[in-house]
Each structure stands twice: as structure tokens, then as C-alpha cells.
Automatic annotation (TrEMBL):
This is Putative 2-hydroxyhepta-2,4-diene-1,7-dioate isomerase. It comes from the Bacteria. It holds the Pfam family FAA_hydrolase. Its EC number is 5.3.3.10. InterPro entries: Fumarylacetoacetase-like_C, Fumarylacetoacetase_C_sf, Rv2993c-like_N. Residues 1-60 form the Rv2993c-like N-terminal domain. GO terms for biological process: carboxylic acid metabolic process. One of its GO terms (molecular function) is acetylpyruvate hydrolase activity.
Amino acid sequence: MRIARYASPGTDPAYGLVELVDDGGDHPDTVATLTGDPLAGPVNLTGERHPLAEVRLLAPVIPRSKIVGVGRNYAAHAAELGNTVDANPLVFLKPNTSVIGPDDPIIKPVETDDLQFEGELAVVIGRICRLVPVDRVAEVIFGYTVANDVTARDVQKTDKQWTRAKGWDSFCPLGPWIVSHLSLDEAAALDVTTTLDGEVKQHGSTADMVHSIPELVSYISGFTTLLPGDVILTGTPAGVARMVPGQRVSIEIGSIGALSNPIVDGAQTLGYGDEESPAGQ
């Protein structure tokens, strides 16, 4: 299933099942509305449907507690930045306020001159869990989505740790929906392609991960309890590069879909006193 979170005029955000129709365009793709939150308990179809083109897709999940990122999980990416691969996964946290959805703007902070994209497969946790054995990881995964682990690379270097460089508002685009039907084997063999203004910058495969999805979930659950809706970013292939306001970055992962966001100048955004929450929420 493809589970989206969406908004339509005059209604509150809702979850729905995305129904893609492959009939040459004779019928529109639709989203069928669900009651409640599929990550919180049982849901049902309401019978209401909307053309997918007429709704606004939101971030498919707002993590209840945390986003856990994994660094240097592709050897070629580690090498391109002059780093080595550690024996254990290199993990960091991103705040849930960094989450935005499809087509929401990535805001370039004035503090960085080297804003970079990192196209990644994201794992969405479906149940509370701790100390998960590798052979039982499939039981705790709700599904997968596309992520962009946006990074202020110069800040990452000068701060010598990653919280600020990866934690600004808008630095975790997620979408377009959560795919819940992939097996672990299928998720371990997906193409990951990132384009900047239509030019291919990254093209890799989840098969190239140093630490597999089961290894990552087991390792992370060994030191922190994972909650439904928590997101694990599994690392990025080689090819990361700078992006600037006015450009658009798009990430496509086979069998899941594509996530696209424009980049805007943070100097033109409002600050203290705003009533607006991050765009994807």
C-alpha cells in the first residue's frame, strides 16, 4: 500500500491510500481517505476519494520523538568527503521540526554557503521496540519513504558535530508517501537517483549500503527505544553537491516514488514571532 498524508481546501490534514492507475491516463490517480492515523491504530476507509492532482501532499509522517540519521553508510560517499567507514554505524539525530513535505521549500540559512542534498531511503518504524534482533527487524517496520538529509556542509565542518548542520527547519524533506508492501530484500535493492534542476547528481543503489537495514534498526534499537512514526535515514550514495536558492532538488527511489523541493533564501523568510509551523507539518 501507498499511504499518504494530504490536505485539501477547507479540510484538516488526513491520511489516505494512494491509488495509482496505469491505464494510459483515461482515469486519474486518486487518494482514498482513511479514518485516524495508521501509525496509531486501526483505520478504515471513509468512502471519500479525491483526484491526487487536486490535493496537497504533506510529509507522510511527523516523527513523534526522533529522526535517526546514519552517516557514511555508502563507502563511495564516505570517500568523496575524505572519510573512512567505521565498523559500527555512525548515527546522529535530527529534530522533527526539520521535516517538510513534497514541494515545500528547503530554506537556506544565512549561516551557510554550502547547502548540500543527500538523497536517502527512509525507514518508518511501526511499533514500539527495543533491542530488536536482526532476524526480527521486519516485524517493527511500518514502511519506507524518500528522504533528503539536507546538510550545511561548511557548518558541519566548523562545528565538528552535526546537530546544527543537519537540524535546521526544512532540512528533512520526506515523501511523497509511505510504501508498506516492500520486503526487506526488495528494500535492499532499490535505485536512488537525485537530480538538481533535472541534472543527475546521484545514482546509486541501496544494495551498496555498508550496514543493511536490519543491522541499522537492530543497532539503533540497542541504545534507544524506537516509537511508532520514528524515522531512520539510511545514508546517501556518492554525488552530494551544493544547491542554491532558485534551484529544485528531486530524489527518486524505485518502487516508492519521487520527492521534489525548491530551495529558497532564508534571508527572505520571517523569524521570531511567526505563527506558521514548518511547512511540512
